[in-house]
Amino acid sequence: MDRRRFIQVAGTTAAGATLLSRAEAQAPRRPQPEGEVLRLDATSPHGEPGRRNVYYAFADLAHTIEPGDMLEYDIFVREDSPAHSASVDIGFTEGPYFRESQIQDQDGIPCHPAASLDRRAQGKWHRRRFDLTPLAGRTTGSFELAFANDVATEGTYVVFLDNVRIVRDGQVAADIWSEGPPDPAALVGSQILTDVSLRTVTLDAMDGPPPPLPVAEVGLTAAVPFTTTEDGYAEAPLVAAGRDGFVAATVLRLPSRQDQVAAWTESGQLTPLTAEPGSYDSLCAAGDGEHFAFCWVRNAGDRWTLDTHIDGVTEAIPETGPGRCANPAVDVRGDMGVAVAYEVYHEGGFHVRLVRGAGAGWEAPID
C-alpha cells in the first residue's frame, strides 16, 4: 500500500491554490463544516397549491470552467422543513443557469434545486460533487443558494451551506464561500414564500430562530406637523416608492376649512396636493421605485370625481362617469403607465370600472 496517496498535502501553490491529496480530489469526502455556515430561511404562509422556490445570491465570482472542474459543497436541510430539496445554482455570464444542465452529483441526483435530498441532507450534513466538464468554456457569475418544490403545506424551510468551491486537478481553483458574510446577499427570485432571509451563523447556533427582517429606523426628526394654528388630524397615511425615495400622503381633516390631501418626502417637505373644494376619501397609493401614484375620491356637492397625483402632477381622471365613485385601487408599472380600478353607484346600479393612463393621457373607462 502506498501511504502517500492518503497523506493530505498542506500548503499552497505559487498561484495561491490550496493543494488536496489525490484521494481527496478523486472521491467525495465526508462533509466538514466548521466555523461559520450560511443559513437560508423562508416561510410558506399557506397550504394552497403552487411552486415554492427561492434563489438567493451569496457570492459573485468570475471563473472560466475547464474540463475536469468539480463543484462541491456541504449542505444541510433541517428535518422539520416541509421538503428537503436544495442546491447551489450558478448564473453564467451567458446562457442558461446551471440548474438547466441537469448535471448529476455523485449519487445521480440532478443539480436542480427541486431535486430531493431526502435521507441524504435531511437533518444532517451531506457533501455534493458535480463534474462541470460539460460546461467547459463558460464563465460563472452569481452563485445562489436555492430550493424549489411543489409541496402545498405551511411551514418554514431552513437550509445550511458551507465549503462551496471548484476543485481542479487536486487544487481548489475557486473558493466560492467558506466564511464571512455573503457578498453580495441578494434575493434573486422567490415564489409564494415570505420572510426570506440569508445570514451567516456559527455551527453551534444552527438551531436558533430566524432573524428579524431588517427595518429602517425612523427618527423623531422625520415627523412633520401639518398645522400649528388649529385643531385637526391626519387620516390613513400611505407611502409609495419613487425615483427620488419614498413619498407619503395623507388626508388632512381641518375643521375651519376644506379637507386636503398632502404629501411629504424624506426631506420633510410637506406639500398640499389639492386645491379644489370638496371632501376627500379612500386614498390609495402605489410605487415601483421609479414612478409613484396616489389616487383618491373627491366629492363636491353631488359631483364625484377621482383625482390622481402621479410623479408630482395632480389631475382629475376625466370621464369617470355619472354617479358616486368609491374604493379606488391604483397600480403603476413603468412604461405600462398607471391603472385605476374603482366602484361606481348610479341609478340603483353598481359597476366596477378600470381606467388606464400613460404619457398620452387617460383612456376611456372599461366596465
Main traits of this protein?
single chain, 367 residues, mainly beta, six-stranded antiparallel β-sheet, four-stranded antiparallel β-sheet, 1 helix
Helix-strand string: HEEEEEEEEEEEEEEEEEEEEEE
General shape: elongated
Query: What is the SS-derived class?
Result: mainly beta
User: Could you give the count of β-strands?
Assistant: 22
**Low confidence ranges:** 1-27, 215-222
Structural write-up:
29% of the residues are buried. It is elongated, with a radius of gyration of 28 Å. The longest helix has 5 residues, at 22-26. It has one helix at residues 22-26, and strands spanning 36-44, 52-60, 70-77, 87-92, 126-131, 140-149, 155-168, 171-177, 186-191, 194-202, 233-242, 245-253, 260-265, 270-272, 279-287, 292-300, 303-310, 313-316, 324-332, 338-346, 349-358, 361-362. Strands 1, 3, 5, 7, 8 and 10 form a 6-stranded antiparallel β-sheet that branches. It is mainly beta and 367 residues long.
